Amino acid sequence: MNKIKWPYRLLIPVLYFFTTSAALAQTESSAANTLNEWFGVINGYLDSVFFFDIYPGEYEMPFIVAWLVVGAIFLTIRMGFINLRMFRHAYRILRGKYQTPGTEGEVTPFQALTTALSATVGLGNIAGVAIAIIIGGPGATFWMIIAGLLGMTSKFTEATLAQMYREVRPDGHIMGGAMEYLSRGFAEKGWTGIGKWLAILFSVLAIGASLGGGNAFQVNQALNAVKQQLPILIDQPWIFGLVMSFLVGVVIIGGIRRIAHTAEAIVPLMVLIYVLACIWIILTNMDQVPVAFGKIFTEAFTPAAGAGGLIGVLVQGFKRAAFSSEAGIGSAAIAHATARVKYPVRQGIVALMEPFIDTVVICTLTALVIIITGVYDIPETADLVSGKEGAALTAYAFGTVISWFPLILSVTVVLFAYSTMIAWSYYGERCWTYLFGEGSSMIYRITFLLFIVVGSVSNAGNILEFSDLLLLSMALPNFIGLYMLHGKVRTALKDYLARLRSGELDREVADARDGQ
Question: What's the CA gap between 209 and 465, in Å, rounded?
């Protein structure tokens, strides 16, 4: 039998996808109930394994949250507070000042950053912040900011390791990320077996997180915002799922280069629209800004009744910050591994800007809008609050100040969700191919597209919990790698900073340009 030629062979998975999606749509109610039951079973198992309570007091401190907090503090100290020292240098790298010919990679440092940001600057900033305030009160915002600042060092460390241990394959594609520095880095220390099992565990968790937090949760929360403007989606949400799956499929078939180019175009635009809207609301309510900041700081340490106490507020802040910035999770390292840079530390310095942009800036702006408008604690939004429909609550907050803006926000929400999904599809696919080989990537892509439809018909609360569990669980194997391999990063950082201070790096760039 003759082989089916490209692109006609794509018709097989496409036809399978739409046939299955149509069947799912026709049995929407029963399918949703079954999916909710599946999510419930999976959530219960993961909760018992990774989220057991380690706090002896009245309130809960899940192990995995404490793991992220302690790890981020440890790395920040060990790296000499690199998170606060390299803003100017990171900006110069992004401008292309230190680009030298002959470096291997698939994308530029800026494209790698926008790809990673497209995964993090998303509904975590819109829906996640609202959910943190719903559960933990305004004080959760303070702990989100602290988590973002500490997470900058975690992101620096994992991106640097991803560059150090990446594998450039014969076809030019790069395999890099936590699965590579866990397996290859541990092998250097003589712990081949342990490293391999940790890499497998990370890959499995990342695949699950890509289908949950990077996919189903995104489309579900985007749908909650959009259906306020398109009532037809209230009764037929699968339509939104099918449209989004088609739009995502068009991009992810092209791999990291097409994803990077799409992210490079979308991310700056969607961030600009959203940030300007937030600033407008804040400026028109300047008299409320001191009150909002007062609530953020005072309730961070003396939480309002029902917010869960100090530990409860801290946990919500760090959970939502981790979900938003993904610092310490290991996911963004997969994107940063593909960047063309001469020194691994250089891309690590670029990567540390992610949590600052994502959590410290954008999440704080969202929190101020929600707190200033007070929508998290009024009778009119009781249903949204009880259902943890964070995106819809944020849209309501904008609508109280700018009556027509929920329509614009709905478009922005879709862009946020879309960009997150295309980036996470790449993360999941790299982990899938690490486990099963490059030839199986189409199976993952079709599965990813199906989960978009799943997210449109399933329950928001169950998907939120599933997303939290899978995403945060990735921190367990990843941070074991960061703990055990951080010494190599610290040595490389010292060497890089010495070269930078001596002017060697600037001379290197000048010589390379003179030689062209």
Answer: 11
Nearest to 331 by CA among 178, 105, 110: 178
How far apart CA 412 and CA 397 sit, in angstroms, is 15
According to DSSP H, which parts of 51-123 are helical?
A: 63-78, 87-94, 109-120, 123
| 8 Å CB contact between 239 and 247 | no
Our count of domains for the chain comes to: 1
Query: What is the reported pTM?
Result: 0.81
For residue 103, give the CATH number of its domain. 1.20.1740
**Rounded alpha-carbon distances, angstroms, from residue 157 to 2, 22, 29, 113, 344:** 49, 44, 45, 15, 10
- One DSSP character per residue, 260-304 reads HHHHHHHHHHHHHHHHHHHHHHHHHTGGGHHHHHHHHHHHHHSPP
Whether the CB-CB separation of 246 and 17 falls below 8 Å is answered with: no
Minimal CA–CA distance to 116: which of 339, 294, 284, 305? 339
Q: Which residues contact 228 (CB under 8 A, 6 or more apart)?
A: 392, 395, 406, 410
Using CA atoms in the order 122, 124, 130, 135, what is the torsion angle rounded to 10 degrees? 170
Distance of alpha carbon 133 from alpha carbon 504, whole angstroms: 48
In angstroms, the CA 201 to CA 36 distance is: 25
Domain presence at residue 11: no
The closest alpha carbon to 17, from 447, 485, 509, belongs to 447
Does residue 6 lie within any of the structural domains? no
| 255-284 helix and 364-373 helix, angle to the nearest 10 degrees | 40
Residue 1 resides in a domain = no
Q: Tell which residue, 466, 5, 493, 432, has the closest CA to residue 206.
A: 432
Per the CB < 8 A criterion, the answer to whether 468 and 275 are in contact is no
What are 444-492's pLDDT values in tens digits? 888 888 878 777 776 655 666 666 677 778 888 999 999 999 999 999 9
Q: How far is Cα 270 from Cα 413, in angstroms, rounded to an integer?
A: 9
H-type alpha helices, 285-375: 289-301, 309-325, 332-336, 344-351, 353-355, 364-373
CA distance 396 to 228: 10
- Helix or strand or coil: residue 62? strand
Half-sphere exposure of 236 (CA within 13 A, CB side): 8
Residue 13 lies in a domain: no
Residue span of the structural domain in which 165 resides:
18-510
Give the end-to-end CA distance of the chain in Å, rounded to a whole number.
51
Per DSSP, the residues of 375-387 read: GGGSGGGHHHHHT
pLDDT tens profile 495-515:
999 988 888 877 876 766 665
